[in-house]
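User: quick one, fold this
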Amino acid sequence: MRTWTSAIKLLEVCRLFQDDQRIRFTFTVDRGSRFSAGVEELLARAEAHCTPWENVPKLNYALAITASENIDFDHISGPVLVLPHGVGFHKYVPDSGSAGTRLSGLIPSTALRSGRVLMALSHPSQQKQLRDAEPLTYGQTVVVGDPQFEQLLRSEPHRDHYRAALGVTGRKFVLVSSTWGETSLIGRRPRLPAELLAALDYDSAAVGLVLHPNVWSRYRPFQIRSWFAAAEDAGLLLLPPERGWQAAIVAADVVIGDHGSVSLLAAATGRPLLLGAFGAEVVPGTSAELLGRHASRLAWDRPLRDQIEAAETQPWQQDLAERTFANPHGATAELHSLILRLAGLEARPLELLRAPDPDPRQAVPLAFTAYPEFTAPDSLTLYRFPRSVEEWKPDSERASTSLRHVVADESDDNLGRIGNATVLTRTALRPAPESWCANALRLHPTCTLTAAAIPNGCVAHTRDGNTFTVTGSADVAALASALHACLATGRAQRPLSLRLGSVETTVVF
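Assistant:
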């Protein structure tokens, strides 16, 4: 393997051979790609057995499997199975050996002439595409289908499970997906995750981000998390490239993507799709071109919320799936049998696995701009937008009402957000909540209400000396915001129906 992308692909394939004690996997890295960084770390986290690339000629092995077309095939003896690291062959990429481009995924002619290399494909149409690009591929390809697509289909019944694991139950989940390069979605509109979080009510919607492994490898996790720090503070689900993106597709209500493989998979599984970018490097006549021709585009000059609400599955997506993925319910078994056959082993039953559970880093926003709206004398709907992405909120949506206010938690490390808070909270359960409330009012002169958590709600103090106990099955920030709105309108003497997104609860003061 040469890249993080190919390493992730091979680790996924190894899952097919769990409990098969006839097989021993050894990984090796043919360095040289600008996207090689992090491969050894990924294998170390997987606790995989590795051997240096220079030792490969000394090894005795039955089959070599790679998900990269750029390895040194002369360094490997015996049969080689080349797996696609994405969906098909739909992109032209820079050719390091010349000033031009090459078809991504196509192995070199010298390797094809050896007669030892077999390329696994996901659809018969790719055989013709490859023969037209390189006649030497004739007889050296085999159609197995796409196990990733099959796994997505088989994981559909577990959609609610994945949504719960991602923490998006009851909310519209918008998944942003980007391939790599200047023409990618994140290359063209790097602030889109923050813009979405600024435009969508926190209790009604959630946003996830899947970046191509090349982006993680090229810039490294520290840099990526630095770039998306404000969005993560606002609740962005930043999914690591080796785990969770499949579950996120299944869980998604809307996908915003580009010409990458995740967009193709999402569209083929019937997810409403909006294209935020689309590169000119897409190969004519491929599934990616079909995607670009038919998918709705994300307009840059229209409100994001309106476009997300209007997104829906379209008839062409079924045609895309049929043109892209052969053997949709047998690809995994076909690949499993192929590998055993090439390794000289007898076939054995295969246990099918659903997509692994996601393991995202997710933060709960510590500061909101809250917009309370009374829909009846005793009914309040609360719209909340994270303060960390406030600067990306459209000017047209910065409505100022008499009830609009800022609520922040004392644990926020941003002093500006705490200093501007009208309502200050302490979410952590700690002793002496009333003393903390009184002291916080003294320390923060712009604050008019403080609230500290108790087991069934919170206690709150106002600057005019009143003390309240607030109970209800909502977070402390929401309860405090509800109290603030009721005090401002003289409604704090009776129970209140509070709506947060799709959830409604009763609040008692």
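User: anything notable?
Assistant: The CA atoms of residues 82 and 119 lie 5 Å apart.
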